[in-house]
Amino acid sequence: MKKGVFSLALALVFGVATATEPVAEEKKEVKTETSTITWKAYKVTGSHTGTVNIKSGTLAFDGDKLTGGEFAVDMTTLVATDLEGESKGKLEGHLKSEDFFSTEKNAEATLVFTNVEAKGKNAYEVTGDLTIKGITKPVTFDVSIYGSKATASVKVDRTAYDIKYASGNFFENLGDKTIYDEFDLVVDLEF
């Protein structure tokens, strides 16, 4: 009888211990060759669009629920897609210069999810630490997951990352040379 009670007690203790262990997150690698980041920046006289490549990335899941993510972006791949020829080269060179992203010194930008909240089926509100030019600031955005694809739109205030060139908030009398502080990123991921 004592042996039976002891065995039952062990089974309960180990059963409870096993049942309360956290489920291991499954990390899914982002397919960098088929995933895209498109940017759009605005100025008084219009806008510019382009792309930048994902260097590496993972999304973490608990079953089919998004729980985390981590990404690195190769800032040296920043290109404009709305221009051609000399204008394209000038804009890309300027964006990579000290006036903007300083890609020679800061070749990588990163994003690490710090909080993920489900907002409905396949929809999440994500807060993450975005690092650009070595400066880390929080950003909040929505992510949608469909099968092995994810999409997100992120609005970024460039001045938070010491990118103040032609900002109306820092320079007066810019007129039609003013570049708006916020730019948009549209992210399409495959994993």
From TrEMBL:
Residues 1-19 form the signal peptide. It holds the Pfam family YceI. Residues 27-190 form the Lipid/polyisoprenoid-binding YceI-like domain. Keywords: Signal. The keyword Signal applies. The keyword DNA damage does not apply. This is YceI family protein. It comes from Zobellia barbeyronii.
